[in-house]
Structure prediction request, 393 residues.
Amino acid sequence: MRFAFTPQQEAFRGEVNDFLRGALPAGWEGADNAIDDESYEFGRQFLKKLAPKHWIAPAWPKQYGGLEMDVWDQVIFNECMGYARAPIVNTAAVGYLGPTIILYGTEEQKRQHLPGITAGDVVWCQGYSEPNSGSDLASLQTRAVQDGDDFIINGQKIWTSQAHYADWMFVLARTDPEAPKHRGISYFLVDMKTPGITVRPLINMAGGEGFNEVFFENVRVPRSGLLGELNRGWYIATTTLDFERSSIGGTSQALRSLEDLTRFAKTERQAGAGTRIWDRPAVRHAIADLWIDLEMARLLSYRVVSMQARGLVPNYEASIIKVFNSEYVQRQARVGIRIMGLYGGLWGEGPWAKLHGRFSKSYVTSVGGAIAGGTSEIQRNIIAQRGLGLPRQ
Ligand SMILES: Cc1cc2nc3c(=O)[nH]c(=O)nc-3n(C[C@H](O)[C@H](O)[C@H](O)COP(=O)(O)OP(=O)(O)OC[C@H]3O[C@@H](n4cnc5c(N)ncnc54)[C@H](O)[C@@H]3O)c2cc1C
Prediction:
């Protein structure tokens, strides 16, 4: 079977690429994987360039700042962004909270929250995980107690990506402690400026301040902050997770890295030998495997897209992509640093770090990719139970 995009779709690809060439600095090689204030600010400025074209969330309804873009055009758009290594800020809002509000929000909530996201003004973070609730998320202990028309939230979240920059957070909290654990959770939209919220950054092993601990002490949230029905938040939360795991068009960044690595192996001489790195059969085999796997990742992603194009919400199919892509990035990083030999351990822009140290950095940061949004083990459980129909252990 041969997949091809239509001439109109290819024209759109050209338009996006032209825009990106103008919007990103000349010779742009991408921001460092580890987030710092400077790269984050650059990302927010970049959002402001996307906003007038309605390209922050192009799939969303026009009345909320989207373009109602066809899902295949979104793939093209995401592929161009990934390949250009364009900064991606506000993924939580654009990728998964927004689509959840579109499905479950009241008209008032849609009007309150979606235009701020598509204008590039409001950034969100995801308050799911807690110190003792990650994979078993439904065991979460953060409490929300009704008080008149408001809810009062107390508890702690952890690993909250970008909470130190975010304006709002979507939070899961227990509203009925007597009910079975999945049936006593509600989904809240919380302004990060509300008194009682404290954010404490955590430094990851790449030296970046990507995620945080967030403490809630008597945080008052109005009823308008409740998304969907009281105590039905778990079912909304899992929809958000399906959107999170199915990131479409996500392989193009890996494609660019693999092109770089292949070029590097073909041109670089082995230290102390006259031959090229490429002359070693083991290197060629490892790179060939990466190309094959990358094509598989792309096709798995297109499978999910074709489901979305038919109005279906992917479930275990999204888990397949999540586990395959996140582990692929790890394999790619591993091959990359091995090929570079002792230089493979260096990162940054120093004279000895190869390919901007991207592979050594990715070797470290890609560990988190296989944990965030549900670990690989959890994705495999979902695939086994919902995809293959195997019994629960
Ligand atoms: C880079 C990064 C960004 C993140 N961003 C966010 C964020 O923005 N918001 C947020 O809420 N959370 C975020 N997280 C947290 C993430 O969702 C959790 O780390 C993840 O769900 C795993 O939970 P845990 O860390 O508590 O590990 P645990 O659940 O304690 O798991 C520990 C180990 O046990 C295994 N395990 C657990 N249960 C099972 C099982 N039933 N079967 C087989 N193996 C099992 C796991 O696979 C894992 O290897 C982020 C994490 C990372 C790494």
